[in-house]
Amino acid sequence: xxxxxxxxxxxxxxxxxxxxxxxxxxxxxxxxxxxxxxxxxxxxxxxxxxxxxxxxxxxxxxxxxxxxxxxxxxxxxxxxxxxxxxxxxxxxxxxxxxxxxxxxxxxxxxxxxxxxxxxxxxxxxxxxxxxxxxxxxxxxxxxxxxxxxxxxxxxxxxxxxxxxxxxxxxxxxxxxxxxxxxxxxxxxxxxxxxxxxxxxxxxxxxxxxxxxxxxxxxxxxxxxxxxxxxxxxxxxxxxxxxxxxxxxxxxxxxxxxxxxxxxxxxxxxxxxxxxxxxxxxxxxxxxxxxxxxxxxxxxxxxxxxxxxxxxxxxxxxxxxxxxxxxxxxxxxxxxxxxxxxxxxxxxxxxxxxxxxxxxxxxxxxxxxxxxxxxxxxxxxxxxxxxxxxxxxxxxxxxxxxxxxxxxxxxxxxxxxxxxxxxxxxxxxxxxxxxxxxxxxxxxxxxxxxxxxxxxxxxxxxxxxxxxxxxxxxxxxxxxxxxxxxxxxxxxxxxx
Length: 495
Ligand code: URP
Ligand code: ZN
Ligand code: ZN
Ligand code: ZN
Fold this sequence. Notes:
Elements: E1 6-14, E2 19-27, E3 30-35, E4 45-48, E5 53-56, E6 58-63, E7 68-69, E8 72-73, H1 78-87, E9 90-97, H2 105-116, E10 123-130, H3 135-147, E11 152-156, H4 167-180, E12 183-187, H5 191-203, H6 210-214, H7 218-234, E13 239-241, H8 247-258, E14 263-265, H9 269-273, H10 284-288, H11 302-311, H12 327-330, H13 350-360, H14 366-380, E15 398-408, E16 427-437, E17 440-444, E18 447-448, H15 465-477
The structure holds N-(aminocarbonyl)-beta-alanine and zinc ion (3 copies).
């Protein structure tokens, strides 16, 4: 925290609903005042933001720092990963607790907190994955929602034998989410079809990264997305589809929203910024670098389509699924694509990629940019306007953004631990020139100045109004009732 405060002068303050030239006074980790010509005590650091935008720090809804997965551990840990986030203008991440099948959610939650709390450089919170079902899990979900600051639970429809739930288990988990005021999240891919598809590809001698996409084409994602929406609707539970990667799955989400379903779709930086043609690259390491689930799609019109839907509120919010494995870790699958650890980078580059492909391209304005990079996440996961807004009393997570500056993305200059970058060479307009986290300037002139443990865990309460207002009302008015009849008094056959 900056001892005597910070005054950001003359910038254009951009929120999700409007932009206005204004000063901001920050003290003790909070935004104390927003307005013109603020009278500020001596000793305050003044930052001139003329011709720059002043935006809420980015919120990445989907990361996996130091996750043990597919036989290895992601290289971006909570320290390096959150530092890289700050360098890219992201001041909060939502990571995942993913317990092994049969293990306690609460123990896994405490384990992650013990690891992350002393390391994080920006604020963070967690979604918890439900990887198996029992009465104990049901109880633990309630404790997590009531006492541990968790209001979102991810269910996997893929990763057969590892994390995948059956439809009846999804029904039970979604019902419990509704009961405790949480948001059900799904990894929507048909795990049975993927398992069969993988066997088929291997039997045909297709062992390289292209097999990863070929065994799970986009209808495998679209089918699961539709199924999850149907199950969620059956129990009147809000649904959040993580990493929407294909045009057909995005269309399913969009159609459901237009039918009035309470469903949110999360495209990720990778899906908005690049595509699955890389799986056919001749160099194995290059192709393997893009392997993630669901896969990037070879249809090159996919990123533009996803951006169109994001711009128009058919999709709601953006994450990255940052889950980084270096090339030598990816090489666990050098002879068999099913063994390539799934995951790509994004946490550092999400803001610039979305600015370039969304705002610079003319698809969305600066306000929609703020909505999809921070405000909507804060609303859905119930910490708005603490974050996701530049306003009096909000957390001082602020980015001074230069929309005219450009930078070229490269593994040579990024701050992440991973040794390649899926956006290598991409020229982006939109550069964070200063990042302020919890009232402290943590990134400036290309340099990071932050220590592990600077960030805090953000406790989230259940029943987010943004999500639950409609759900609660429907619960009241939508109950089916029995028809009152006289008893049937005719003959009944004997059996
Ligand atoms: O490839 C991915 N997405 N890795 C992380 C695990 C997940 O499904 O989110
Ligand atoms: Zn997933
Ligand atoms: Zn390529
Ligand atoms: Zn993920």
